Amino acid sequence: MRFGSIIKVAIRALLRNTMRSILTALGIIIGVGAVIAMVSIGNGAKAQVEAQVASLGQNVITVFSGSMSSGGMRGGWGSAPTLTIEDAEAIEREVTGIVGVSPEVRDRNQVLANGLNWNTSVNGESPSYPDIRSWKIANGAMFSEQDVRSVAKVCVIGKTVADQLFANSDPVGQTLRIRNIPFKILGVLDAKGFNLFGQDQDDTVIVPYTSHMKRLSRRTNISSILIQAASAEVIDKVQKDITEVLTQRRKGREPDFTVRNQVELAQTATATTQTMTLLLAAIASVSLLVGGIGIMNIMLVSVTERTREIGIRLAIGAHGSDVLMQFLIEATILSSLGGVIGILLGIGSSQLVSHLNGWPVLVSTASVVIAFVFSAAVGMFFGFYPARKAAQLDPIDALRYE
Amino acid sequence: MPPVVKIEEIHKIYDSGEIPVHAVRGVTLEIQRGDFVALMGASGSGKSTLMNLLGCLDRPTRGRYLLDGIDVSQLDRNALADIRNQKLGFVFQGFNLLARTTALENVELPMLYGARKFTTKQIRERAMHCLDIVGLSQRFDHFPSQLSGGQQQRVAIARALVNEPQVLLADEPTGNLDTRTSAEVMGVFQKLNDEGITIVMVTHELDIAHFCKRNLILRDGVMVRDEAVSNRSFAASELEKLSSAEAAAKLTGAKS
């Protein structure tokens, strides 16, 4: 029998019991809808995390100083004063495939301006810092190498600091006092928002690292070194080379530093959301399974109801395979139609969730395609047994069936 | 010319229950092209079983069945389905049309399953032609529920004709019809037979059997009589007689 006629017959059979068809498909609709909604929400969360990771900068490698133990108390990474400016300079000099290096010194300070004060993180960085972090200067300019060499009292400030201290005026050109030392504001950074850990990245003042070490924190070591690799392809090699250079500089002593790249960070951050997505998808798959059993049930009823029809078709020359195809296609149409409605419902409900809760939602083409194929497969799988039952009927018995 | 149906010493034994049932016990039969046979017998005589065997719906336990020169006694399920589709046409007592499917689509059905491939236009034209033969082309878009019993049976006959079968098999085709409609349907069969179509029908009504050319009587699975019909009824005259009888009934009814 031709495919077109089979589909026509199948659709007619489904329309004959519209209500029953809808209720049968409902299991699939809910299952697919749940899958799509869950995966969309999960993907949205993942995309947000990834965007945040990307906001750390492109191809960034971070060297943290080692941990310090004192009297059995072990500090975390960065607690031991083991990294120096010389380390940073050695990396810049000896490792190839690097586009920027920034030694970092961090602490928190009360900053004053305009008769207002604000507690914020004050970081010492190099002039390449905004490039490494892919962070634009909204207004004004970044300090220069010259400022680093001359231990200049200059800074750029984040958006939050600008809003807090200079609500009504342009901060560029004005002065900010840190530990009572006046720093001239050269620029204001673009708003970058919160980072992965919920910290406001814009709540910061950035000064030349030399100025930080000599004028503010009076430290001789640095907290960490930010390095930007030229491309994602070389990031592993660059990371290896950095480790080698630093190890060599320590001449056989225990390595007292850690080198991390942004990809690892991203993996850790997305692992949780991935587990969550997987779990939700598993739950949704169970409802798809239940939907499939519903289809099998109704198809069995349908085969019994239409025994005579099957008998007529067999008597006038239908092969078993024709009857099998007819019922299989009917089940598949039912389930894939449920799949389509479920996909629409899933997209709709995820949009609604996004609208109501402000959660980020991302409907991926892959999840839609997989959901559709899967729902069609469910129909085929669960439709097979009833269809085979129909195909194996004896025409004489089927014709006599009341 | 070889006979279109030739069965030799055919047996059918059902052994599904505790005791095997020997339904057909060695029937030998030849049916020539253009014949019009009525197969008669009491219930349990094996006539339905024989009909199922003739219709290739069932395989004989023993014996040979040559249909149009082909030995169909040992063919498999799909091959039998193709034989039914190409060489046989079925008319059932209960009409067996597909509900919620128009008369035309019912008639088209055998062509959809055939090995021969037709275009949609050919299918439509042939189905319409067959409906025209049974005089129902005006009602091609009616559903079975919108047709009378006689009309439904005529649609079923059109469906049986559509693949140009060698033999038309009818199982109690008038069993569900009143006398007048029965005569009408038999008229259709006689017309088809006059055009050269071989017809085998099962009936238990003697007067219906008289429309045929040859009567076979089966008892306990054995053929006990095979005779030509001498005083054959013809649909046109029978319908005339019915009309006058009805008119007379109305006259007497009016008098009293």
Describe what you observe in this structure.
The complex is a heterodimer of chains A (402) and B (256). Chain A is 56% helix and 18% strand. Chain A has 402 residues and is an alpha+beta fold. Chain A has two domains: 3-52 and 268-400, no CATH class; 83-255, no CATH class. Chain A has a six-stranded mixed β-barrel with strand order 4-5-10-7-9-8. Chain A has a two-stranded antiparallel sheet with strand order 2-3. In chain A, strand 2 (69-70) and strand 3 (73-74) form a beta hairpin. Chain A is elongated. The two termini of chain A are 26 Å apart. The mean pLDDT of chain A is 86. With 256 residues, chain B is α/β, with parallel strands linked by helices. Chain B has one domain (5-255): Rossmann fold (3-Layer(aba) Sandwich), CATH 3.40.50.300. In chain B, 38% of the residues lie in helices and 24% in strands. Chain B contains eight helices and ten strands. In chain B, a hairpin with a 6-residue loop joins strand 1 (5-14) and strand 2 (21-31). In chain B, helix 3 (103-113) crosses helix 4 (120-133), helix 3 (103-113) packs parallel to helix 5 (149-161) and helix 4 packs across helix 5. Chain B is globular, with a radius of gyration of 19 Å. The relative contact order of chain B is 0.17. The mean pLDDT of chain B is 89. Chains A and B meet through helix 1, helix 10, helix 11 and helix 13 of A and helix 2 and helix 3 of B.
Features:
A: alpha+beta, 6-stranded mixed β-barrel, two-stranded antiparallel sheet, 56% helix, B: 256 residues, alpha/beta, Rossmann fold, 6-stranded mixed beta sheet
Furnish the topology, listing elements before pairings.
The complex is a heterodimer of chains A (402) and B (256).
Chain A: H1 3-16, H2 18-54, E1 60-65, E2 69-70, E3 73-74, H3 85-94, E4 98-113, E5 116-125, H4 129-132, E6 137-140, H5 145-149, E7 154-157, H6 159-165, E8 175-178, E9 181-189, E10 204-208, H7 209-216, E11 224-229, H8 235-249, E12 257-261, H9 262-305, H10 307-315, H11 320-357, H12 365-391, H13 395-400
Parallel strand pairs in A: 5-10, 7-9
Antiparallel strand pairs in A: 1-11, 1-12, 2-3, 4-5, 4-8, 4-11, 6-9, 7-10, 8-9
Chain B: E1 5-14, E2 21-31, E3 36-40, H1 47-54, E4 62-67, E5 70-71, H2 77-87, E6 88-91, H3 103-113, H4 120-133, H5 149-161, E7 167-171, H6 179-194, E8 198-202, H7 206-209, E9 214-219, E10 222-228, H8 235-255
Parallel strand pairs in B: 3-8, 3-9, 6-7, 7-8
Antiparallel strand pairs in B: 1-2, 1-4, 4-5, 9-10
Helix pairs in contact in B: 3-4, 3-5, 4-5, 5-6, 6-8
